[in-house]
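Title: Comparing notes on inverse folding

I've been comparing how different people in this forum approach sequence design from structure. To keep things fair, I'm posting one structure and asking everyone to reply with a full sequence. Here's the target:
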């Protein structure tokens, strides 16, 4: 991956709406453009503009299905970024640390729920 390709990728990931679009495509592969646009409180054109940025970064792949354009998340560019800075040993430790972080956050969330009841 070239420096320019990485810049495009990081710019695409920098916007909250685009990250939310990627979350939606992760959870619902093959989502149609119209269905995706209805998930947001912005115009279809705005969603299309975000999709263009994500497509240029290689994060979204679209396939024509009749009159519908189906959208899919492509995680390869993100994996390439991870591979650049992480080796096998650090991946193991990073995975364990993030697991610990998620467990602590879930515990805190549960405590807040119990306190509010």
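Reply #1:
Here's my take.
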């Amino acid at each position: 991956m070239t420096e320019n390709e990485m810049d495009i990728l990081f710019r695409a990931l920098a916007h909250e709406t685009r990250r939310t679009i990627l979350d939606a495509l992760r959870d619902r592969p093959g989502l149609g453009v119209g269905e995706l646009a209805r998930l947001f409180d912005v115009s279809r054109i705005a969603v299309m503009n975000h999709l263009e940025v994500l497509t240029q970064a290689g994060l979204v792949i679209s396939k024509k299905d009749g009159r519908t354009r189906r959208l899919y998340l492509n995680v390869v560019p993100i994996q390439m970024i991870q591979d650049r800075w992480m080796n096998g040993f650090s991946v193991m430790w990073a995975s364990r640390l993030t697991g610990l972080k998620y467990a602590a956050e879930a515990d805190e969330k549960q405590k807040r729920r119990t306190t509010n009841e």
